[in-house]
Amino acid sequence: MPVALFVALMVGCGGSNPPDDASTPDVPTPDAPTFDAPTFDAPEIADTAPVSDVTVDRGDDAVTVDAPAPLDVADVTAVPDVVDVPVTPDVPAPDVGLDVPAPDVPACATGYADCDGNAANGCETNTSSSSSHCGACGRSCPAFVRATPVCVTGACDFRCLPGYDDCNGNAGDGCEISLGSTANCGACGVACARANAAATCTTGTCALGACATGFGNCDGVEANGCETAVATPANCGACGVVCARANATVTCATGACALGTCAPVFGNCDGNDSNGC
Length: 277
Description:
Blueprint: H1 3-12, E1 54-58, E2 61-65, E3 112-113, E4 125-126, E5 147-152, E6 155-160, E7 164-165, E8 177-178, E9 197-202, E10 205-211, E11 215-216, E12 228-229, E13 248-253, E14 256-262
Antiparallel strand pairs: 1-2, 3-4, 5-6, 7-8, 9-10, 11-12, 13-14
């Protein structure tokens, strides 16, 4: 018990200084009250001033108790290491507009293509012969003069209209020559001509025209033209017209038969040429 408390108890009981001979009775010493020291949370790990003794107010008496010594930094439980948490890799979100692969379309055979884009009818276009899709879809052959465009093995060409041809070999002017002329009769460079006669070219065929004066086509062959002169007694004025007079010679001048010279002892006494001498 603190001394101050003990003195107060003695004075309160009317006691005084005892006589020298008086015996001092044994006064039991009261038990000192026991207080539980307050518990303090561990301070932050930081530089702090040491905590002094703490006075506890108990009403009449104040009791001073020793405060716990400051915690040593080493006594503080170490903060556990942060556990590494595996990071979930970013998973790309699916694209909303992903392209849907088109169904496989069988490859077209050589010389064919799917030009209308309709898989139902397959490779419907022959690009080897189509003038609208010549060699490839959409490749159209151009127009030509007096000709029809065509596609031959995938390349543009042209075919001349009947009666015309490309005689100069220039596709730029198309089929520039008429094959109905005597200079190009039925084909480029084929001349139409007949001997001793005019010639005509009709629908590409050379034909014999009119014979020249004094000639005729006496053998009936057009190819050699008018081969026979028709100013002879055998063919006088025309093929097969014989010029003859009785008892006389004849002449065929300008295609007309005439009495020549009478034979000896004969004469044209009636003046009629047709009955000779």
